[in-house]
Amino acid sequence: MGDNTAYSTAMCARHTSCRSCVTERNCGFFGDNNVCVPGDWLKPHGNYTGAGDSWRYFHGQCYVSTKVEFVLLPSIFGLAILAAAIIALWRYWPAQWCGLSSNDDHLSCATSDGAAEGAHDHRHSYHTAEHMPLLIDNDPGSRYIENANTGPVPMSRSNNKATLQQVEHMAGTGSVGASFEEQYGSCSGDNGDAQSEERLSEFLTGDGHTNNWAVLVCTSRFWFNYRHMANTLSMYRTVKRLGIPDSHIILMLADDVACNPRNRCPATVYDHPKKITDLYGDNVEVDYRGYEVTVENFIRLLTGRVTPETPRNKRLLTDDKSNVFIYMTGHGGEDFLKFQDSEEINSYDIADAFQQMWEKQRYREILFVIDTCQANTMFSKFYSPNILSIGSSEKGENSLSYFHDYDLGVSVIDRFTYVNLKFFETLDMASKHTMTDLVSTYNYSQIRSHPGVRTDLFKRALDKTYLTDFFGAVQNVELTREPFPIGKKQ
């Protein structure tokens, strides 16, 4: 044993620096005396006293003392962190939030000097804060809670629990001009809380209308079908003017007219020989262009059965609170509509696609408008609820063009679409015109065919259905200073 100790002492003594000393497993280094001695990570071995009583003993690596850094410093750092945490908690603990009531098992609001006070339940900290607004976006399935500390937090439709301070209503929903408290109750008092919770639950879980979408499809291509592209772009301009953003419009267009070599007005599309309004302009977003306009892509769009790599602008992101306006134009016949002279879609295909949409809760109501020959046969096979259908011509009738532009050598719009657009030009975002007002403008002398309206699947009366329920996207914002009470914990 003595020989081993002597050997270890000699082995350690040959090192003259800390860096080389600590490379030996059984050696340690005293910094004060610059001596390498036998030892483990805690202390020297045996009765070695050559280094005296120094506290600066290193093992394994230099400049990390086994007695100071490994024992003393963690204690000092731990106390410092604890003190900092206590100070931060004392300074930033919310003093004016709606808190957890001790009498009942839900959050309530008590007012003091105009501000809400109370304890804060940490289980709701991610969506409860003073003056934190809830934004119900026009983008379906992705409502967000805007938190000043954590940023936007998504709120799922299946678990709509949040502090409600800012609610956006679509046109035709809610009471225009009514205050937030009148619609959803006050934040003060037990009775107000119960009433508020009931109305909030009704708003979030009811079948109310919250957003509008438009799907505009031109199924034709080639220069001589100029009018069909003008039909679609005219409708696109109308729904955008009435408030539906591009993010909620799906435009399917061959897009081979504006830059066609036969176009004497390059990069333009007009719906009138006087060329007053350029429908193409610099603000048209075509989502499905050219050969992307197919029957398969149209059905996949409606049913949501798109491939994972499909970009957002090519998806119909609707939900059970969405009103969807679908407009189609092109060449058709009895129970079919041609897609770019290469394939057809029939009335059964569209009917089955709408049924899938209903079963998957992808719409609240649908307005289906089609301008083609024998258009009314295209919605004769529909069987899903809440669909209002309008066609330009009966079985056996043609849908005729209107204006002819002799400079371009083609017709620039169809009669049925022109009549609709002429009426829409009288509307604005706050219009109170109904479907009855629109349908009453149809007359055979101007359209030269008999438009059809199918209402048996639609549960609302036409004179109670505002056009802005499908064509507009007006949002009324109600603001309150008081946080809205959250419902009972699950």
UniProtKB/TrEMBL annotation:
Annotated pathway: Glycolipid biosynthesis; glycosylphosphatidylinositol-anchor biosynthesis
Entry-linked Pfam families: Peptidase_C13
TM region positions: 70-93
Keyword tags: GPI-anchor biosynthesis, Membrane, Signal, Transmembrane, Transmembrane helix
PANTHER family in alphabetical order: GPI-ANCHOR TRANSAMIDASE
Family the entry assigns: Belongs to the peptidase C13 family.
Name the record gives this protein: Glycosylphosphatidylinositol anchor biosynthesis
Organism from which the protein derives: Coemansia umbellata
